[in-house]
Design a protein that fits this description.
With 220 residues, this protein is an alpha+beta fold. It contains 5 helices and 10 strands, in the order ββββααβββαβαββα. Strands 3-4-5-6-7-8-10-9 form an 8-stranded mixed β-sheet, sandwiched between helices. Helix 3 links the parallel strand 7 (112-119) and strand 8.
Length: 220
């Protein structure tokens, strides 16, 4: 496992780069997306009607494979699958905002890490599933010490995603115009992320912490 640009964790296609044993849920892992081996799974996910905000619904399987093969060759953008007991249930992408169109729409801080994630499968109870995702995303994305803030930019029309981000404690920022959408920036700094991680860990441990209303897919 290596850190690229001091902020992004990556590895070889198919390599597991994060592990977490969650009582009552199973082994949660993050592994680098394999554009060929994982193609059937991700093509099914991104072409489903509910994935319209992900923006890849029109791609053929070959086009999707080529797209993620290109991403795999970049040092500034990476894609991963989050798995429960080796079965994928979410797609996660990280990037350096300075090397992305997003970085032209605001002033990136040195520790910013861009994030997209999409819930591909329903696993466990809703509360348990979201607690696992929060715990995994915060621990993984902000794992490198130089990663200080998560940046997301969901489509302004994705009200469900914006509501979830607001509920989780992301600070909602301005609207921005990207080549493929009008988006709303949102930020989660390390201090707030640590509180969110503690909350998710407490819920998984049986503490009465609820994440009511988390019913959608906060993909951006």
């Amino acid at each position: 496992m290596t850190a690229v640009s001091d902020r992004l964790i990556t590895g070889a296609p198919g390599e597991t780069v994060h592990r977490d044993a969650v009582d009552g849920f199973g082994a949660v892992t993050v592994r680098v997306l394999d554009p060929e081996g994982d193609l059937a799974t991700i093509h099914r996910w991104v072409t489903a009607p509910r994935a319209r905000f992900w923006g890849l619904e029109a791609l053929t399987a070959d086009e999707l494979r080529d797209l993620y093969a290109y991403v795999d060759g970049l040092a500034t953008h990476h894609a991963f699958l989050v798995c429960r007991d080796e079965v994928p249930f979410a797609l996660l992408q990280t990037y350096v905002p300075e090397h992305d169109p997003v970085g032209e729409c605001y002033h990136p801080a040195p520790g910013d890490v861009g994030l997209h994630f999409f819930l591909g499968e329903q696993v466990g109870t809703r509360e348990q599933q979201w607690a696992v995702l929060v715990r995994t995303i915060v621990a993984f994305v902000l794992g490198p010490p130089s990663a200080q803030r998560i940046v997301v930019e969901p489509d302004v029309g994705n009200a469900r995603a914006l509501a979830i981000l607001d509920m989780l404690g992301f600070a909602l920022g301005p609207e921005i115009v990207l080549p493929d959408k009008t988006a709303r920036l949102a930020f989660l700094g390390r201090e707030r992320a640590d509180l969110l991680l503690a909350r998710a860990t407490g819920e998984l441990g049986g503490a009465p912490v609820r994440q009511e209303g988390l019913t959608g897919d906060p993909h951006g």
